[in-house]
Design goal:
Elements (H helix, E strand, L loop, with lengths): L1 H18 L14 H27 L4 H18 L8 H27 L2
Helix pairs in contact: 1-2, 1-3, 1-4, 2-3, 2-4, 3-4
Length: about 120
């Protein structure tokens, strides 16, 4: 289980970071409720796209269906958990942060589990 989450994080974190390198529309900050709604919708859509890319790569690596679903669920949960804290960030920054923290937490959990489980 942890190995599947770690593999999903190894795939998601670079993809989330690459999103920051994509060109943006500009640096203006219009007022009103539409920019906040737009940022939220774009973060949710970005999460869906990132989860789909992770699922595609996991399928190419011939990971079992159960582990693919687990990896997708991990990436989506990490993104949803960070949505309130990153509500003022653009979607690309949100995806980069959420996927990087997800990889960090899963790697530490995996390393601790491996350390205590090994002889």
């Amino acid at each position: 289980m942890l190995a599947a989450l770690l593999l999903a994080g190894i795939i998601a974190a670079p993809l989330g970071s690459i999103a920051l390198l994509l060109p943006s529309g500009g640096h203006r900050r219009p007022a009103g409720s539409w920019p906040n709604t737009r940022r939220f919708v774009m973060a949710v859509l970005g999460t869906i796209v990132l989860a789909a890319l992770v699922a595609g790569v996991l399928k190419l690596l011939r990971v079992t269906d159960r582990n693919v679903l687990l990896g997708i669920a991990g990436v989506v949960c990490a993104s949803v958990i960070w949505l309130p804290a990153t509500r003022q960030w653009n979607a690309r920054a949100h995806l980069c942060w959420a996927s990087s923290v997800f990889l960090f937490v899963v790697y530490l959990t995996y390393a601790l589990d491996w350390t205590f489980a090994s002889a």
